[in-house]
């Protein structure tokens, strides 16, 4: 039985976040440059986005480029920025009724990349299907620090009091404030860590790690992760008896 046949389509996770890991190692295994792996990984993004939309996932957030990635060799960063510019295909979004969003410190991105991304966000804003979110120049510590700074400015201006700072208040200042927290976080490539990704938002997310490198991650792999997710009991700090 395929994993697609095992899935309960009434219990599809609303929000799936993915750490797309293993592009470089996938390329190295083939005796190629890391950029070759990133190119293959970009193709996987289109495949998984279309499958996620077909499955009924409402939000798909992909960890594309972290703030720490700016420390990589300049030639690799240049190749990644060029790939990012070239791989944004509005046709894929429009054909699948997918809207496009970005989270992260995008002011650090090259101007031509920002312009292209902003145009895609605008042109797909009326699509009513799944939202595909790219985390670009993003890290969770950066995001929480920025939220704290915004709250401090509001307090300084007298627009907010310390007593009004709640978890909901902080969430409203996060870049993810337009969507629910991830139900399922997937990391490919065999590593078992969160790497500064959606730390606040993943407080109660189900975590799924697999050894498959991102360029080899295909539809059945996504279905397998969702099938595994559906076998778990999500208690959010309560007992089994309380949620039954």
Topology:
Layout lengths: L2 H4 L8 E5 L3 H7 L4 H22 L3 E8 L7 H14 L2 H6 L3 E5 L7 H13 L7 E8 L1 H17 L10 H6 L11 E4 L18 E4 L9 H12 L9 H4 L1
Parallel strand pairs: 1-2, 1-5, 2-4, 3-4, 5-6
Key attributes of the depicted protein:
244 residues, alpha/beta, 14% strand
Brief overview:
The chain has 244 residues and is α/β, with parallel strands linked by helices.
What do these coordinates show?
- It is globular and about 55 Å long.
- The protein is an alpha/beta fold and 244 residues long.
- Helix 6 (111-123) links the parallel strand 3 (99-103) and strand 4 (131-138).
- The model has no long low-confidence stretch (mean pLDDT 93).
- It has a 6-stranded parallel β-sheet, with helices on both faces.
- 43% of the residues lie in helices and 14% in strands.
- It is built from 10 helices and 6 strands.
- The two termini are 29 Å apart.
């Amino acid at each position: 039985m395929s994993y697609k046949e095992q899935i309960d389509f009434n219990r599809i996770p609303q929000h799936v976040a993915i750490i797309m890991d293993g592009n470089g190692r996938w390329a190295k295994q083939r005796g190629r440059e890391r950029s070759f792996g990133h190119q293959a990984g970009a193709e996987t993004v289109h495949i998984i986005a279309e499958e996620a939309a077909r499955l009924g996932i409402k939000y798909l957030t992909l960890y594309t480029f972290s703030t720490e990635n700016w420390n990589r060799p300049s030639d690799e960063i240049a190749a990644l920025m060029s790939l990012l510019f070239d791989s944004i295909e509005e046709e894929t979004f429009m054909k699948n009724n997918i809207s496009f969003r970005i989270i992260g410190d995008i002011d650090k991105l090259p101007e031509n990349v920002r312009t292209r991304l902003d145009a895609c966000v605008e042109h797909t804003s009326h699509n009513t299907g799944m939202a595909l979110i790219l985390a670009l120049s993003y890290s969770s510590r950066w995001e929480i620090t920025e939220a704290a700074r915004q709250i401090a400015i509001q307090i300084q201006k007298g627009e907010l009091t310390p007593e009004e700072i709640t978890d909901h208040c902080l969430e409203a200042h996060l870049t993810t404030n337009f969507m629910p927290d991830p139900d399922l976080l997937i990391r490919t490539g065999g590593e078992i860590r969160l790497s500064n990704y959606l730390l606040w938002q993943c407080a109660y997310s189900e975590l799924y790690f697999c050894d498959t490198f991102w360029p080899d991650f295909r539809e059945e792999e996504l279905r397998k992760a969702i099938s595994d997710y559906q076998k778990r009991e999500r208690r959010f700090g309560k007992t089994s008896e309380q949620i039954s």
